[in-house]
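ingest -> validate -> predict -> emit
validate: passed (alphabet ok, no gaps, 499 aa)
predict: started
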Amino acid sequence: MMGIEAARRGGAAAKPMPAAAVGAAAAASRARVRMWILRAATSVLLWTCVVQLTALGETWGPRVLKGRPPCDHRDRSPPATEAKEAVEVSSGHRPRRVLPPKRVYKNNGYLMVSCNGGLNQMRAAICDMVAIARYMNVTLIVPELDKTSFWADPSEFHDIFDVDHFITSLRDEVRILKELPPRLKRRVEQGRIYSMAPTSWSDISYYHRRILPLIRKHKVVHFNRTDARLANDGQPLQLQRLRCRVNFSALKFTPQIEELGGKVVKLLRENGPFLVLHLRYEMDMLAFSGCTHGCNNDEVEELTRMRYNYDQWKVKKIDSEMQRIEGLCPLTPEETALTLKALDIDRKMQIYIAAGEIYGGEERMATLARTYPKLVKKETILESSDLKAFHNHSSQMAALDYLVSLESDVFVPTYNGNMAKVVEGHRRFLGFKKTLLLDRRLLVELIDQFSNGNLSWEDFSSAVKEAHAFRVGNPTRRLVIPDRPKEEEYFYANPQECL
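emit:
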């Protein structure tokens, strides 16, 4: 080729190339063409495989492997990977939420759970079940909510919680499906399922050692009880933080509940600060705990009969006065009025009652209403039409109270039940918002002394204030009692790993 160029420039005759050289050049050219064709075909084949595997993974397969995000909540805003409500806005397009990347893992099977108890007991259980599923690398089916408890609420998960947000916001941690794949679903419908209640207060090693082999064997395992199935303490830090992430970020209430809760808060705020009183003086709690202080004979008989009629409540014979002395009873409305007054809660303060129907009705509430005339509840703030869809759905009503409790200036629970604990922990997470943690054992002793004339009002009030000066939801280390998990401080009341 150089000879040809020289001939063109200088007119000199070029020597012809040998036939062997011409054949070699042609062969090299053909080889290069074949190589490029092979590369192109390989690229197309690989790209096709990637697309097919991605589509298949959307339905069955593992997720894109990503590390856990940090769980530093000091600024009280969830990290981007926690399905933060980030949006991209471009002209002519609808805003879309940026989802966390999916996580890849070998799916070891499927976990179905039937939660038991009221809203907040189920809420904590759901957080535990997500953490357990993630650390066993199994697929979690959206939890079934309790419909057989005292409240007999027919609500499904999607009636209370934003199910799509729950699934997508956790997809970088665990795969969650609304229902089992068809083949396994048919098997379950035929009754071919392994159902069990895990051992209470177990650490995550129990689930790896005892439960994971069962899931691998049966493909699907069903937990028929979920309350307190994961230990409070001694768990991996990332597991503890995942429990918080589910509770504080993934478990959003439905837009309808969120909107109505916001409306209640707005109406309260228009009239100034407000205190939420979780007055757990309701029929089910009194019957369950055996607390009948101040009740007449007919009420005592009614509460006792109810306790004996519920098989789930194992303890039947209860000494009511001993329960009260030990601080194991919810404060009565009268005891509550004395306590708030002793703590110098302003008489003009709005007090929102976060509770169901108070046992004894308006007659039992008379003393508290006289002491604090700005006593309100959702039924008095909202129009009846606002609550129409919530009637006979106690968990949805409780969700409204939960939202209002989070936003209150002060939260005061009169019993250390599940709602009191979970709201306390959530308010800690939101910046240690003031929560009055009443020492019921001391209070009933002081109240009795005052009522019997053995203690002046000044001394009574001073003693109550002194006892509660530091019981306001301040940062503290969680109380750990080895070998007595029921008596130690609940993880969800003080999730110190996430604060």
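The chain has a mean pLDDT of 86.
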